[in-house]
Batch of 4 targets.
Target 1
Amino acid sequence: MEKGQTRSKRPAGPKMVRRLHAIYRARGIDGETKRQMLLELTDGRTDSTKGLTDREAVYLCGFLNGGAQGGRSAERDMLRKRRSGALRRMQRYGVDTTDWGRVDAFCLDPRIAGKRFYNLDAGELLDLIAKLERIIKRKEEA
């Protein structure tokens, strides 16, 4: 590891990249699914296994292999990551994310999600993130 470079910033090594590709093949993960998974994991930074940091590659390897504590922990981590992504975008839009009442009021609008934030499942959170991205983009263009 280079001086001043932490594990979380260091790119994944070629051995780890090969290992992940072997896992993709073994699990039957196609290219589009892999790209979506990587975009989600890196919060849109990269859709390539070679673009992962060492920490992200280790996490993904554990996630694809069922995680050290089973798939539940990995699912919870993914849900937490999606919630965080949605909250960041709400904050960019102007919603006070420190007030759960405002977050819920925003999400309860049928044009947004029609549910309380905590009740959104992983798929609904992905839809919400995409919707918020479109809203923010329109707002910035205006």
Target 2
Amino acid sequence: MKGDVSQVSQKWLVSCKHFAGSNKSVTPNDEQSILDRVRQHGADGFMGFYSTLPSNALVDRLRAMRDVDGPNYHVWDGRSIEGNLLNRNQTDLMLRYLPKSFQSIRPIAPLLGRQHELPCEVCGRDALEGSLDGGFNANELFAQDDNRVVQRVLIACKKTCDPGLERRLYQQHGWITAWEDITDLCNPLIYLRRFFATMNSIRDNPGIFSDAAYEDVQQLYTALAQRTLRSPLPADEQRYKDILPFEGF
């Protein structure tokens, strides 16, 4: 096959070792008779897929096999497997089969030792923590009065809590609500664009947000920064390009 490892067609003998539980390295005792196995299957090289690292002794043995007998080798350890899945925009695959690795790569990073929550206004569920299970399941609601001043910016769970919250805000205050899915705000590129758009709106029209709504926005962007301020993934860049025409840019 041709790919990242080789641009020439080769047949590989693939060996998988899963030692994530014990976290021990893969040793020559775990990979015995490599050359014999390669020859038995008529392979051109040996490829190891390991959840942990190969030991120095195993790497030395693989190098000696290549230098003396000719078969090539390539080892994918846990970190290189994770990195390639992310670089190839396989976050859905990681979330399904490697959820712990996904969370460790895209964790919530507390600010100054404190984790800022993003609670639902109705049930209190932390939307930020819940986002680690497969994306945000919450909307950002902008509650406006008759003068189109934003009185509150609130978080509510999709479909379950936001309809009731919208009704309550209208019945109690006469506020009309608009909402946005906050999933996009976990994209660092979209996060920054929306943040500065909000700041520009406040600068152009200081009265557009009430004091309470302004505090809500501060809390929202502070909490989301814990999940968002990271290097953009290819999927982030594509999504950023996708939404530009709809935002007038």
Target 3
Amino acid sequence: MRGSLALILVGLLAGCNGDAPGEWAAIVYPDAGDRSQYSTTYRFQSLAMCRRAAGESIAASPEPAKADYRCGYQCAPDPAAPGHPVCRSMQK
């Protein structure tokens, strides 16, 4: 009994990610026609969370109709272009 309880506990803890950082980043462009201006928010745990956050950011922007976004997977700042993320893949 004690062994099976320990196995259940380990299984439950393995499924919990609490505040673990995610692998998705929201890249929001206030003006879709000018991709040189953007803001990046890292650490979303899922594509859905990234999309939701990007949508909220766009809704709060001065001109939401002009804005656009992309969600990047496994992004990191580009050492050759400070502030610009390089991502393994991008999705909308």
Target 4
Amino acid sequence: MQTTRFYVYGYSLDGIMLYIGKGTKERYKDHLWQCYDKETYWSRALRKMLDKGIKLDSFIIQGNLTNEEALFLEEELIKKYGKRLDKSGTLYNMADGGSGPVGWKMNEEQRERCRQRMLGNNRALGLIHTEETKAKIANSIRGIVRSAETNKKKSLALSWQVEEQIQKCKDYVKDTWWGPHITITYDGETKRQSANATHRLFTVKLEDIIIKRTITDFRQGSCPIAFAKLKDKYK
């Protein structure tokens, strides 16, 4: 029996779909980190937008799917929105979707089974666009359409995610003696964690002591040796 732990997710800007993918757990957020290590069509586009402080919407379109259903829906939605590479739509996807990690692809019988199971899925295959959205999609094929207001929304690279990440860091260490007394900022510095992952380096300050930590370090909640000499003062 297949598990239903998969989902199909999307990225959009001003209501225009930019990317469709399939994953599990936190996969739909991974692009925000991995775009700085990869050189795919989507990664380059996402990186440029993040560096300009442009906030994209990332969301799960349909969850609680089997692997087959997720592959099927991914392929159908890519077909629905079309790809920029062949000028058929707005997506930065390079592949047509529907393939597993080693190139496995559903046969017609499997596709038909998925199609029948997912009939009536108004949240995904049955999406209906307004005339305004249709116009945006048509215009976006010639390039991303941004309003004057959107173009003004510039700040530090990845700034739209930074506040959320900083809050997570604070939550991880709130029960430590030093947690309530530190300030956490981010100035764009990153640290390579592995061949496929790069994490933000946050600047942590307590009085005149400054250290650099990734969110993984905060998750472990250990007391930095650098702060030890101030422990008696704050406990």
